[in-house]
């Protein structure tokens, strides 16, 4: 658990470093190269090309990272712990989620809606060029809530149970869903398996996240009863079997309506709404969502430590 502790603390203190050699960026580059190869070799069956890409990337990432960890431990035990901790650090996104959200809020508070739209485009897949202030704030809250699961709880969950190489392999799963999981002409078939397999890997973490948000709502003196109510009612109001779990719990805690129709690549996509509009969304809701984010990350870290300790007794 020393490795997870190092990774978790580094994330809280430093956040996500922006450089071209970031492991997740390298994984993204690898995904693109492998995609191009299998698109050529399996051009008659894009679903198989997508599955072959997924398997190849996961194997490469897991084997390579496992080799680095083993070599590090062989050189020196302390060095191995540090290397594993740094690997885990690259997988967790607590501080970066908060920072990116606050960048959007700062632009709104400066009355620069164009900059807010631009900043928002870094963290969402929807079109942002025509969004008004309320739509921007809604998108920020939705993005933080959804990414609490796959950007924080899931990496901590997999790192705690299986170690740094598996955490990096999970991030490869998540990266391929982000890159290939679009339902457009290019990726409808190719992205089929990457999207479905991402759903499998996020199935348990998403549900853990939903309940941790409800618990956090209680601790933060938010409307935890409504959080639970909306979670139970709207947790499947999404095309993904997982995404609505954290969004529903957050929407209930804040008394907001999330989800609904948005434009993606110029095309209107109708989605179910999540939550009830008990009040109008405001900047304060982003700050509260960030507080939920941090408390959930702390709780998930604590649970991982406890499970690891209990497991070591047997």
Structure write-up:
GO terms for molecular function: ABC-type vitamin B12 transporter activity; threonine-phosphate decarboxylase activity. It is found in: Cell membrane. This is Cobalamin biosynthesis protein CobD. This protein has 12 helices and 4 strands; from the N terminus they run H-H-H-H-H-H-H-H-H-H-H-E-E-E-E-H. The protein has 314 residues and is mostly helical. It has one domain. The strands form 2 sheets. Strands 1-4 form a two-stranded antiparallel sheet. Strands 2-3 form a two-stranded antiparallel ribbon. The mean pLDDT is 94.
Features:
314 residues; mainly alpha; two-stranded antiparallel ribbon; two-stranded antiparallel sheet; 12 helices; 73% helix; cell membrane
Please count the beta strands (DSSP E, at least 2 residues each).
4
Number of helices: 12
Structural class: mainly alpha
Write down the overall geometry.
globular
Helix content: over 70%
Helix-strand topology string: HHHHHHHHHHHEEEEH
Proportion of β residues?
under 5%
- In spatial order, strands of the major sheet run 1-4
Q: Detail the poorly predicted runs.
A: none
